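task queued by scheduler; priority normal; single chain, no ligands, no partner chains; default sampling; output format set to structure tokens
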Amino acid sequence: MATRTIFCLVAAVTLGCGGAGDTGAGTTTEAGSETGTGTTSGMPTTGGDGTTGGVISSTGGEGSGTTCGATFCEEPVEPVHIVCDVFAQDCPEGENCAPWADNAGTSWNATKCVPVTGDGQPGDPCVAPEGPVGGLDDCAKGALCWDVAEENQGACIAMCSGTADVPICTDESTSCAMVNEGVLNICIPDCDPLAQDCLSNGLCIPFEDTFICVLEAQAVGLFEHCAFVNGCQQGLLCSEPSWAAECHPEAEGCCLPMCDLDDPEVVCPGVGQSCVSIYAPEMVPPKYANVGVCRIRE
């Protein structure tokens, strides 16, 4: 599946850019309007009707040393040092064009040519000796070490091939997420939002006309304030605060439960809430036609 989206991503406490309300082009959210073609406010972007957005983080909170994963940064991160093209892989023989952070930060904001030191394929374990945003790892050319945690260990993930206009992921169970102004382009697994079937406790969140797995964030619970699409615990969606009487009306976003439109016994926890499709009527993808969110109807 080849889809295109742009969001900001960091490898520490936060993982994307844009605040609550930055949404993409498919789900029914009303918390924002910054769009890519797929991720919201950082990592995955949803449609223009209510859910909020974010990006991806690969490490834990301050001083924790644990894997944080998909949380989003509040400000966009501009690339400042583009040496090579991650799509064209135009580095000399034996080198890989890799995203990295050239400012001692936690967000991928540049590219550089690094030696290919291993042959790890997507899904294989890997080591990034300089950390998650150092650029160097032992994955094969065209892949990078992802979800890097303790002892700089992670798993190889494929980078998108093709071009920025027509990105390609050869594995049809993944979607191409173009991150941080195109510095980081990765093939992220699709998932079932109602089953929350991502590995390693990852979050399954909206992305264009599908849902994708992002790294686990330091997420909050039901009716709590959120700023990004992946800022809520599994099964919850960062949504418009007016959709629940229990949410603070001035919050950037509020965590509300996703629900199954085909389940006649579904019970929403909020006063006056019912299960409503997260997609605008004209944008409902058949695969996710039963995915809703508990909200107050307008």
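post-processing summary
- The chain has two domains: 1-220, 225-296.
- The longest strand covers residues 253-260.
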